[in-house]
Amino acid sequence: MLCFLRGMALIPFLLVTWSSAAFIISYVVAVLSGHVNPFLPYISDTGTTPPESGIFGFMINFSAFLSAATMYTRYKIVEKQNQTSYFSTPVFNLVSLVLGLVGCIGLGIVANFQELTVPVIHDGGALLAFVCGVVYTLLQSIISYKSCPQWNSLSTCRIRMAISAVSSAAIIPMIACASLISITKLEWNPKEKDYVYHVVSAICEWTVAFGFIFYFLTFIYDFQSVTLRISTEISGDV
């Protein structure tokens, strides 16, 4: 049986494939429609103008839901592992979940408020999504090391930490360069003064975004051994 059909592995698998498709489809539609320059647009640029804005909004909203479901399931996995063999304070796992869910809210804001229509709200949501997402991956990488080798292999821990490190390194110039750009626009000319800032910021943004995707990809193996049971109890007189 395919690995993504075992246990709860379908959730991170759907998150990875759906989010990748969201970025790629909206980018292709935006480029073919002539709404953005094919060379390094911001991710949000590819979801600003119809028809790609509808595709982007719908798919990113579902990505936010899948992210929350994945993070909560991961939280329950770590909680159970920690009860079986204590390796970390439960608060650490809880803080990671809360930050991750805040990042999901930020992602939902990005999906529903286009950058040219309400830029302040859109940018605030993007900041929440990226910063909280990066901190989430860092905390989960630390948890993975703490639970190694019983619950995670050393190679998995190293991969997660490497992705977290790259994302952490990329988010700083992403925010710094974006803050130096004086105008929000979809099409850029290499001769414009803020063009370099745009290119650096866009490269870092795509790096962090796909860093999240590759990070959640490492959860698939862990989720294979997890099952979800829903029980219904009726108490009292009916």
UniProtKB/TrEMBL annotation:
Keywords assigned by UniProt, alphabetized: Membrane, Transmembrane, Transmembrane helix
Transmembrane segment boundaries: 12-34, 54-73, 94-114, 120-139, 159-183, 195-221
Gene Ontology biological-process annotations: regulation of autophagy
InterPro entries to which the protein is assigned, alphabetical: CWH43_N, DRAM/TMEM150_Autophagy_Mod
One Gene Ontology term, aspect cellular component: endomembrane system
Domain CWH43-like N-terminal: 8-225
Coiled coil: none
Location of the protein in the cell: Endomembrane system
Major subcellular site: membrane
Membrane topology: Multi-pass membrane protein
Signal keyword on record: no
Keyword RNA-binding: no
PANTHER family: DNA DAMAGE-REGULATED AUTOPHAGY MODULATOR PROTEIN 1 (PTHR21324:SF11), FASTING-INDUCIBLE INTEGRAL MEMBRANE PROTEIN TM6P1-RELATED (PTHR21324)
Similarity field: Belongs to the DRAM/TMEM150 family.
Name listed for the protein in its UniProt record: DNA damage-regulated autophagy modulator protein 1 isoform X1
